[in-house]
DNA sequence: GGCTGATTGGACCGTCCGGTCCAGAGGGGT
DNA sequence: ACCCCTCTGGACCGGACGGTCCAATCAGCC
């Protein structure tokens, strides 16, 4: 499916993706036209279709991939080394800092929500991202268990899901309300809960 | 700002809003045109602009208000009476059932994300909804505290935020991945955490 | 019955924008 | 030097869609 791509071509393609991503972060998919991208990246219409034959949808997909990769990238190296309580806190601070910085402009949801979550290609990008993210968190929980820093009865997968949900939920509400407190509180609570002793909880 | 509106007019207006909401839930804002709404509601172009003078944006706002109201409505009466552990569980089941039913079609995010979260009017609708939602949850936590069913040292506001974030985060990921498990696990964990004894947690 | 304003129908317009096309410049391999 | 394929420029097209307009109808009210 890939065409031969000279270094020059690859650079242009990259410039287009990054320029488009930049625009979309600020203005959202529906408010960014091909002409905007063309202008912002000093390219021409034909180049856009040269590198993204299927047109806008194709380009948006490339942007989505780019942004999805960025999400975990931004949380590194903390996210990849959650082996102690202190490192979890460092990661937490990083996450809050990132989202506080981008505020409205959540690259992830800006694309998924506005690109149509029905599209299987989009779906797959997000699913992969969440799986990776969840995996890293679960590994971190497991590391704490191994180190005896959290109760051994904790289910690493479930705990990772709880933390992940706190981040995505908090980020979503930050985006909608411009309040960072949801993310701060939810994430802090989620991490704190890892530390609490596991009392037996009877199902209702 | 309100015009005199005969019963007949009010009914038509209502029909438009509900028909538009229906369409948007399935196809998303960008994929629903005024002509679609016109056709689906057996109205004419002039009626759309008669009842929503500012055009599509105006109509979308009305739809957003309608959907926002629906969110809490759907969770009643459980959400309004979280006075015992059993009732919390009943609410939890209801929430999961609701979101499992609508899957991709999350009325809330379908509108906020695609309507531009920069728009202050949209922002206000969501903010109000989340405030109300949070308030009801906090009241529920407080009720448990009063009944001595949860540790008295719990911060009702923070706990409510944690639960709310679990729901919105889980719902968001459900929308993106079509997996209900995030919501199930996160919400269950969040509620279970209310029951756990509050061990002192030292800040890192 | 006629007046007034709400209500409805639907033709029409202008623009925005994704997409097409073709012609030309660049540049590296033989 | 030559050729071929990549790369670039930008004019152009056609459809979709939000929005306008005017005329017709309906409903309460004196």
Structure overview:
The structure is a homodimer of 204-residue chains. Chain A is mostly helical. The first copy, chain A, folds into 2 domains: 7-64, Arc Repressor Mutant, subunit A, CATH 1.10.10; 65-195, Tetracycline Repressor, domain 2. Chain A has helices at residues 7-27, 34-41, 45-51, 56-75, 85-102, 107-115, 120-146, 156-177, 181-195. In chain A, helix 4 packs antiparallel against helix 6 (107-115) and helix 8 (156-177) packs antiparallel against helix 9. The longest helix of chain A has 27 residues, at 120-146. The termini of chain A are far apart. Chains A and B meet through helix 5, helix 6, helix 7, helix 8 and helix 9 of A and helix 5, helix 6, helix 7, helix 8 and helix 9 of B. Chain A binds a DNA duplex (30 and 30 nucleotides) through helix 1 and helix 3.
């Amino acid at each position: 499916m890939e065409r031969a791509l000279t270094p020059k071509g690859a650079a242009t393609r990259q410039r287009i993706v990054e320029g488009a991503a930049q625009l979309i972060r600020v203005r959202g998919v529906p408010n960014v036209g091909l002409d905007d991208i063309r202008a912002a990246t000093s390219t021409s219409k034909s180049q856009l279709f040269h590198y993204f034959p299927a047109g806008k949808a194709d380009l948006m997909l490339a942007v989505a991939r780019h942004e999805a990769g960025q999400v975990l990238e931004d949380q590194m190296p903390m996210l990849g080394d959650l082996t102690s309580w202190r490192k979890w806190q460092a990661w937490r601070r990083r996450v809050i800092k990132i989202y506080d910085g981008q505020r409205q402009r959540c690259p992830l949801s800006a694309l998924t929500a506005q690109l149509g979550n029905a599209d299987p290609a989009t779906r797959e990008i997000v699913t992969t991202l969440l799986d990776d993210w969840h995996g890293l968190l679960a590994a971190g929980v497991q590391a704490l268990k191994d180190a005896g820093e959290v109760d051994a009865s904790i289910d690493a997968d479930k705990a990772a899901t709880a933390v992940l949900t706190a981040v995505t939920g908090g980020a979503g509400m930050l985006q909608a309300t411009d309040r960072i407190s949801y993310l701060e509180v939810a994430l802090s609570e989620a991490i704190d809960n890892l530390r609490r002793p596991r009392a037996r909880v009877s199902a209702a």
